[in-house]
Design a protein that fits this description.
Number of domains: 1
Helix content: 25-40%
Keywords: Electron transport, Transport
Largest sheet: 3 strands, parallel
Protein name: Electron transfer flavoprotein subunit beta
Strand order of the largest sheet: 3-4-11
Strand content: 15-25%
Shape: globular
Pfam family, one: ETF
GO molecular function: electron transfer activity
Structural class: alpha/beta
Organism: Haloarcula japonica (strain ATCC 49778 / DSM 6131 / JCM 7785 / NBRC 101032 / NCIMB 13157 / TR-1)
Number of helices: 6
CATH topology: Rossmann fold
Number of strands: 11
Mean pLDDT: 87
Distance between the termini: 42 Å
Low-confidence stretches: 1-5
Length: 248
């Protein structure tokens, strides 16, 4: 997801956010999903693999997962064009189904509960449906027990508890755990690890939704006035504060 602390501008065709001056980061939901995968793998003698679909720059987020001590990473590398949720989910499902094309090559698939930018809650449930897996979103508690995963999610007035047969998929909500902070040494080691790359193919779907354009919000930035530099600016600052106090 883009770190949108900076002012957003659009491409000339109004179809995408101009990310040339933006940084990208992992959403809090996905950080908790990665942390939970690592903990489950450690507790049950398994492996944790981070998987992402995106341009070559998405490698940086995968290396963050490796630095958090995930075992492997796979990038479904695209040319940078935007993929809709259905295309994204189909490509992820194909990658997760493995060589057999039918049986998933994992026991538990953890998704961030929703995308942090538009919160559309689409990819996880679509992947689960395509792979015919049980799925619960909004998970705030998770326990593996004898071939099942017991998950909890908060609802108005209480907590819902579900038991899913493995393999299964869940949407992890921020707060499930406290993600670990990768040390500088771990980050350096992660840069040396290999990342598997695959070339996904965007599936065609009938009844596509056509995006007409994006609209950037109006800027709320205020004008700035330089009052001076160093000690010479003190009188101007004092006068400004005095005027403000008189207004109050």
């Amino acid at each position: 997801m883009p770190d949108t602390g900076a002012k957003l501008t659009l491409t000339d065709d109004e179809q995408h956010i101009d990310t040339s001056h933006l940084g990208f980061t992992i959403s809090p939901h996905e950080e908790c999903a990665i942390e939970e995968a690592i903990q489950v793998a450690d507790d049950h003698d398994g492996t944790a693999t981070v998987l992402s679909l995106g341009p070559a720059d998405a490698e940086e987020q995968l290396r963050t997962g490796l630095a958090m001590t995930a075992d492997e990473a796979t990038l479904l590398e695209t040319d940078g064009k935007e993929w809709r949720p259905r295309e994204t989910a189909a490509a992820l499902a194909d990658a997760l189904s493995g060589d057999s094309g039918t049986d998933p090559e994992f026991d538990l698939c953890l998704f961030g509960n929703e995308s942090a930018d538009v919160a559309n809650h689409q990819v996880g449930v679509r992947v689960a449906e395509r792979l015919d897996l049980p799925f619960v979103a909004g998970v705030t508690g998770l326990t593996i027990d004898d071939g099942t995963v017991v998950v909890e999610r908060d609802v108005t007035g209480g907590t819902e508890v579900y038991e899913l047969d493995l393999p299964a998929a869940v949407g992890v909500k921020e707060g499930l755990n406290q993600p670990r902070y990768a040390s500088m040494r771990a980050k350096m080691q992660a840069r040396k690890q290999s990342i598997e790359r695959q070339d996904p193919v965007a599936s065609e779907f009938e009844g596509r939704i056509e995006k007409v354009r994006l609209e950037a919000p109006e800027s709320t930035e205020g004008a700035a006035e330089v009052l001076g530099e160093g000690p010479d600016a003190v009188p101007a600052v004092v006068d400004l504060l005095r005027d403000d106090l008189e207004v109050i």
